[in-house]
Design goal:
With 590 residues, this protein is an alpha+beta fold. Helix content is 51%, strand content 20%. The chain is built from 15 helices and 17 strands. The protein has a five-stranded antiparallel beta sheet. A five-stranded antiparallel beta sheet has the order 7-6-10-9-8, sandwiched between helices. Strands 12-14-15-17-16 form a five-stranded mixed beta sheet, covered by helices on one side. A hairpin with a 2-residue loop joins strand 4 and strand 5. Helix 5 packs parallel to helix 6 and helix 13 packs antiparallel against helix 15. About 1% of the residues have low confidence.
Length: 590
């Protein structure tokens, strides 16, 4: 495709060429006509001069033919033309080129007719001479005698010289026009380039804008309408750049929001293909690279796929709680919203999946917790109420029975107090309302102090307590009371579930690689069944409910231990073989 400047320049050049050809043609013809008129006038003047100099009007033409022939012959070279004298009857009297007697009558010649027959003052004609064989210009004037036309004096010249002069004229005109065309072509190209340069720049900037290069601007100097157009294009580019920056910023914000949503997001087009998903959706589905696939190939839940189908068909919002079992069992709050065009046609749907598995689990835990608390509180409250009523009914007058019942009431009150305090303690730990006052703590010293606290209980069951033997002290950053609370619960549990003459050992190991310590509490007691190991840290969960209640436990000790350990940035593990014993391992950072 030719460039714009070339098209404009070529158009200018063709226009000038046509104009110059037309002007040249008419100029040449005009100059040729002027030149012929000049020759005609010259020949006419020459004829009048000859009439005067030769005194042809004063003599008889036929009787003085020889004298006229002799007088005219030398004049041919002087005026550079052929001279012919013709009498009134049309016969040649004298001629400077041919023998007059051989020429015959010239009455049929146009220039002669105009003078002799039409009576004009001059007769002019151009034709090919029958005697000379080439084109001639003839000018004839009358020879008068006593007011009457007595003959014709005709002067003729060859048109060959005229044609040469005209050809020379055409050659000069062609040369001048050729040079003019070259100059005009150069000027046209310069003007076209000057005109089209800003247009090309505007086109280039427009193409840049179409190719998302919104920073492009028109910098060339222009004037008139092109300047207005350049300013408009630059304003358009600036506006587009600003709008695209805002769109890009909004897209980044939207993408950041979608990518970091805790809910799974999936965009499906009207052809039922997935257009976009976020990482949470891929995590819920358990598969990556979902874009471009049909949603019914990806969604493994029939209920969820049916929900999307209903939204596509009915074009209304759909919401339902759905349980999926692949890749893992989850409870999802599924919301499917249609995307409608201005005409009401559906262009796609947005699927939002919110994992409420933990919420439902916590609701169940809360329900169980309320039920367990109610149950645990009911036992001591019932005992207190029953013994108090018995005493009021008259048993208080029996001193031995009064003392026994009051002892039971005190024990149940203590148990109720421990239960309430454990519940409050667990609530504070879970809500992170317990501040940690870190200090340098000697772990071995805390373990020995804790063992001294529970030693009397161990002695009652004749249980051996084995403390760690360290070569050098192990110091960690922790809160001494919290560490002692962990150990009291674990060691007390070990004593409770270890039979008579058993053994409870506490050990410490240090891991220099990850800068942690591990405290182990090991017993050779009844152990924990494999089916119960995963649940022993749940609140109020008991492997042996009857024995636990008889031992005075609240069922919250291990839950408290787990929350304290995790709040310290550690973790707790358990290994147990039913009938052989249990080992609790607490890993804490130094």
């Amino acid at each position: 495709m030719k460039k714009l400047w070339l098209k404009i320049g070529l158009s200018f050049f063709i226009l000038f060429f046509i104009v110059m050809v037309i002007v040249g043609f008419f100029s040449g013809e005009l100059m040729k006509s002027v030149y012929l008129n000049m020759k005609e006038n010259q020949l006419q003047d020459d004829a009048q001069i000859l009439l005067t100099t030769t005194k042809l009007e004063d003599i008889d033409l036929d009787q003085n033919a020889d004298k006229i022939q002799a007088d005219l012959k030398p004049l041919e070279d002087k005026i550079g033309a052929r001279i012919t004298v013709i009498d009134q009857s049309g016969y040649v009297v004298a001629d400077t080129k041919e023998d007059p007697h051989s020429l015959g009558s010239h009455m049929d010649r146009p220039e002669v007719k105009e003078v002799l027959e039409q009576g004009r003052d001059v007769g002019i004609a151009t034709r090919k001479s029958s005697t000379l064989g080439y084109s001639m210009l003839y000018v004839a004037v009358p020879i008068t005698h006593s007011g009457m036309t007595d003959g014709v004096l005709r002067i003729s010249i060859s048109l060959e010289s005229v044609e040469k002069a005209v050809n020379q004229l055409w050659l000069s005109l062609s040369l001048i026009f050729g040079l003019a065309l070259v100059f005009i072509g150069f000027i046209s190209a310069v003007i076209a380039r000057r005109i089209t340069r800003p247009v090309n720049e505007i086109i280039d900037v427009s193409m840049d804008l179409a190719n998302n290069r919104y920073y492009s601007r028109i910098t060339g100097k222009t004037s008139g309408e092109l300047q207005d157009l350049s300013v408009s294009v630059n304003q358009l580019a600036q506006s587009l750049e600003k709008q695209m920056q805002e769109i890009e910023l909004n897209q980044q914000r939207l993408s950041g929001i979608v990518q970091n949503l805790v809910s799974g997001v999936m965009l499906i087009d009207q052809k039922k293909f997935i257009v976009m998903v976020n990482p949470m959706m891929e995590k819920i589905i358990g598969e990556k690279g979902l874009t471009g696939k049909a949603y019914y190939e990806v969604l493994k839940s029939f209920a969820l796929a049916q929900l999307v189908d209903q939204c596509l068909e009915q074009k209304v919002f759909q919401q339902e709680e759905i349980t999926i079992y692949f890749p893992r069992e989850l409870i999802l709050d599924a919301s499917v919203s249609p995307i409608l065009s201005k005409t009401g046609n559906i262009t796609g749907v947005i699927v939002l999946l919110h994992d409420i598995t933990e919420i439902r689990r916590l609701e169940n835990v809360r329900s169980e917790f309320v039920a367990n608390v109610s149950h645990e509180l009911k036992t001591p409250v019932t005992a207190l109420k029953g013994f108090a009523e018995t005493l009021l009914d008259g048993a208080m007058y029996d001193e031995a029975l009064l003392k026994k019942f009051l002892t039971i009431i005190k024990e149940e009150s203590d148990r109720l107090h421990r239960l309430i305090m454990d519940i409050l303690e667990l609530s504070r730990i879970e809500q992170k309302h317990v501040s940690m006052n870190l200090e340098q703590v000697d772990v071995e010293d805390v373990i020995i102090t804790t063992m001294d606290t529970v030693r009397l209980v161990a002695l009652e069951k004749e249980i051996q307590l084995v403390s760690p033997k360290l070569v050098s002290p192990i110091i960690i950053q922790a809160e001494r009371d919290r560490l002692q609370q962990i150990l009291i619960n674990l060691i007390s549990n070990a004593i409770v579930y270890t039979p008579q003459n058993g053994k409870v050992s506490v050990g410490i190991t240090e891991n220099q690689a990850n800068d942690t310590i591990a405290i182990t509490v090991t017993d050779n007691g009844i152990g924990i069944p494999a089916k119960d190991i995963d649940r022993i840290f749940e609140r109020f969960y008991r492997v042996d409910r009857a024995r636990s209640r008889h031992s005075g436990g609240t069922g919250l000790g291990l839950s408290i231990v787990k929350h304290i350990v995790e709040s310290c940035g550690g973790q707790i593990k358990v290994e147990s073989i039913e009938g052989s014993g249990t080992t609790f391992t607490v890993i804490l950072p130094k």
